[in-house]
Design a protein that fits this description.
about 600 residues, Jelly Rolls, Immunoglobulin-like, alpha+beta, 6-stranded antiparallel beta sheet, 32 strands, TIM Barrel
Amino acid sequence: MAEYLRQEYPRPSLVRDRWLSLNGKWRFDFDDEKIGLQEKWWSSGHELGQAINVPFAYQTPASGINSQDYHPVVWYAREFEVPSQWGKDRILLHFGAVDYEATVWVNGITAGCHEGGYVPFSFDITDLLQDGENTLVVRVVDEDRINQPRGKQTATKEQWGCWYIPVTGIWQSVWLEPVAATRFTDIYLKPDIDTESLSIEYTLSEWQAGLSIEIVASLDGGLVASQEVPVPQRISRWLNAPLNRGTLSLSVPSPQLWSPENPFLYDLVLRLKKGDQVLDELKTYFGMRKIHVERGQVYLNNRPYYQRLILDQGYWVEGLYTVTSVEELRRDVELTKAMGFNGTRKHQKIEDPYFYYFCDKLGLLVWSEMPACYEYDVEGAERLRREWTEAVLRDRSHPCIIAWVPINESWGVDQLAGKVMPEATAHLMALYYHTKSLDPTRLVVSNDGWEQALTDMLTIHEYTQDACDLKRRYVAFRQNRHQKAFSHNRLILLPEFDYDGAPILVTEFGGVKVEEQQVEGWGYGKAAADYKEMVQRITDLVDVLLEQDEVVGYCYTQLTDVQQEVNGLLDHHHNPKVDVELYKKAFRGK
């Protein structure tokens, strides 16, 4: 079994110095009969019969199994030892992402459960550990139901259209981390370029008397600001106990502003102290930038900014959802910028933390989009809301992210296509306001593509391959915002919502397949005969969008070929199909 170790630190934007990777070879088995719980497979007496390379799903070549058969229940096991130098610290067991329902045992005792396939979770396993070798067992349930957030993972047991091979089980890193009993549990960084300050909202595991927080900000090694402030005792009138959260403000005079063109980042160190003792230290960074809308424009750092985005689904041949090296993520970001784009719409996937890290470091805007359920019901809506909350909380300090997209093309509220459905519309509205409650600093798109309710940007999907047809359709939409002007025959705005002057972007178009590539698969509309025709078609479509003065950005479909869908600018192995300079000339902005 080829072993891709993925031994890099798993959380690059929020670093503690000590950790231990649990990636690599684990024992593994399928449980198609669902007998593992009854037979107590979590106990030390049961042996799993296969081996798998974590963190790769069993459906991938990189896992060493590479089976695309449907197995809704899988089990993992391995042994580990806690480094003796960690002493009496609390030990956290972290999972980057496990799709979909995970139950975890340590030494035969339940450590905890988690539901949600795209977000991290952790358990304090200190009290479950024993001296020397410990046994870790994980059971995962990933059924083919459509009322759990799936993204582009097919629920039909076969690939079709633009739905792909599922990803089951552990697909991001597993690791241990020693921490103090009193520590930071959450940090939310909110830059304000108008007041030249950074707000730091923190949550602690507990409050105790005598705590202080030291903050050190630097830029290119030079000190920007440093301060130490006591953690106040704040008593809630609802509970006669101190609160474990608070807010700090750090002055950042004459800030260097973050943008795709100049991705300035400040380094930040946070130390939780008691007297001279450092209980916890976190190393992170922040970007001073602002995003808002006004008079039909999107503003970045108080200036109108034309967005040139690429739709990126985040699939790889060897690992499906999981890269075999984080340098693959860096290369994708570098290629995206080289092809002329200033942003990406991460489509139907909450990505590996290193993706957002490289977008921060190299300068690429990101629209973060929640993977979809497929029809509305109360259970699915709640599953999506809960996991979306965890995704936003994980990533809301990244300067690269400027927009949140909880729903795409009515997936999860698909009944809206045929009738007025008040509960589905209310779900859109609720997600809009809920996202704003978690992060009021960014834009929220209620339903990217069509049938939108309240939204900060009005977004349109249109895959006509004919530039003249695109222009006719857009002119018709401009004349009547409530007609079905586009080829998907869906309303852009729901009937009960009027256009309120929100910025307009065409956030899916193109998707050109090329016959010259000689690869089986599909694209949108009639294929181009060769790469020259592909580039010309893209140029013509972009020209039409640039002619529309109210269109303030676009998103081309798509970055790479994905399985049976062969309409990428890059092939399945993420290599450009033509010289990137030709792409750069085609993808222009105002």
